[in-house]
Design goal:
Oligomer: single chain
Number of helices: 8
CATH architecture of the largest domain: 3-Layer(aba) Sandwich
CATH topology of the largest domain: Rossmann fold
CATH superfamily of the largest domain: P-loop containing nucleotide triphosphate hydrolases
CATH class of the largest domain: Alpha Beta
Number of domains: 2
Strand order of the largest sheet: 6-7-8-3-9-10
Helix content: 10-25%
Radius of gyration: 24 Å
Number of strands: 20
């Protein structure tokens, strides 16, 4: 399947000339005769931060490695800044990669690790001190310049890896699961810091991640990948509010899921018979169509107005998560009803029956195989 991806709302810094700063066109890849990527088209703007988001095996790391020159595509082209780099070796692409394990040299100091890329490009040893110092200052690691890598924490090693990637002034920065080895609090801190740093320097970057919260937090746009193709490529708000497939709805955030069959259709409004009652949605599917209804949990509330969609379900669980309380309603084996309320909410308990509802306008609807 061909995925032609264009910016729905390009960053303010972008000009029309820069919209195809990185242009991956018709790229395909197979391993041992099995196609893992077919006619992939992927475009991004200069200065844009894009995440490749998807489960293991979906092709995101394969795409990253093809762009980096660490893997050859079977067909197609990669153009960066107007320069066709399809057949260029990795060391001639001016692309920096931050790997999941950071790939730092344990026998070198922090400063020597950062200087490695410069030295590999032929920079004289005496000319590396200034750019290395600037790179370490950028990631707030100046005082660790003479420390061995083994003496650093995971977060500090991550900063060194980023400094080493940035010191060569790359045309494109690729980050392959860069925060996966960090604990949650440090991961969130590093996400904020790295995004601010890249934005301040106008660096074009691609993140590979399977963490939806990470992708939503750091990205200008997100490409949700599944089975070697891109399901949707959009800004975080659009991706969350209007996912274009059940896969995207499930992978990016949580949602109520209710299967049903269209029983009436009139003037752009359908009625859907589900296992827990009739519901309505804005759509044009004919009577008899099997569909999946969805709605984000923060849009669901108890004691809904009569004009809203509503269901009455027993609560399988009530989860108090500090800043929010999540109600898990029982529908059937394949379905669920989720309601997210702000703060700590009392009055709900396991096994209790609750009536929950949401606006018809907030109802997502997808055709599914019957």
């Amino acid at each position: 399947m061909t995925n032609v991806l264009t910016a729905t709302k390009p960053p303010a810094m972008q000009t029309p000339i820069e919209r195809n700063y990185l242009d991956v066109s018709g790229v395909g890849k197979a391993f041992r005769g099995v196609r893992v990527m077919d006619a992939m088209n992927f475009r991004m703007a200069k200065g844009e931060l894009v995440s490749l988001l998807g489960p293991s095996g979906c092709g995101k790391t394969t795409l990253l490695r093809i762009i980096a020159g660490l893997m050859a595509a079977d067909e197609g082209a990669v153009v960066l800044g107007g320069r066709n780099i399809t057949t260029l070796p990795a060391h001639k692409r001016n692309i920096s990669v931050v790997f999941q394990n950071y790939a730092l040299f344990p026998h070198l100091t922090v400063a020597e690790n950062v200087a490695f890329g410069l030295r590999a490009r032929g920079t004289a040893k005496g000319d590396t001190a200034k750019p290395v110092a600037e790179a370490l200052a950028l990631v707030r690691m100046t005082e660790f310049a003479d420390r061995p890598i083994a003496a650093l924490s995971g977060g500090q090693q991550q900063r060194v890896a980023v400094a080493r990637a940035l010191v060569v002034d790359p045309d494109l920065l690729l980050l392959d699961e860069p925060f996966s080895a960090l604990d949650r609090k440090l991961r969130e801190t590093m996400q904020v810091e790295l995004k601010a740093m890249l934005r301040d320097r106008g660096i074009t970057a691609i993140f590979v991640t399977h963490d939806q919260e990470e992708a939503l937090g750091v990205s200008d746009r997100i490409a949700v990948m599944n089975a070697g193709r891109i399901e949707q490529f959009a800004d975080p708000s659009t991706l969350y509010a209007r996912p274009n497939s059940p896969f995207v709805m499930d992978f990016v955030g949580l949602s109520t899921r209710l299967h049903g069959t269209v029983t009436s259709h009139d003037a752009g409004m359908i009625t859907v018979k589900t296992a827990i009652g009739d519901l309505h949605a804005r759509a044009n599917f004919p009577v008899g169509t099997a569909v999946l209804l969805g709605v984000r949990p923060e849009l669901v509330a108890p004691d809904p107005d009569p004009q809203m969609n509503s269901v009455t379900v027993p609560l399988r669980d009530v989860m108090v998560l500090g800043s929010k309380t999540v109600l898990h309603g029982v529908a059937n084996d394949a379905d669920r009803v989720l309601c997210e309320l702000p703060g700590i909410r009392s009055g709900f308990s396991h096994g209790q029956t609750a009536t929950l509802g949401w606006s018809i306008e907030d109802t997502l609807v997808y055709e599914v195989a019957g």
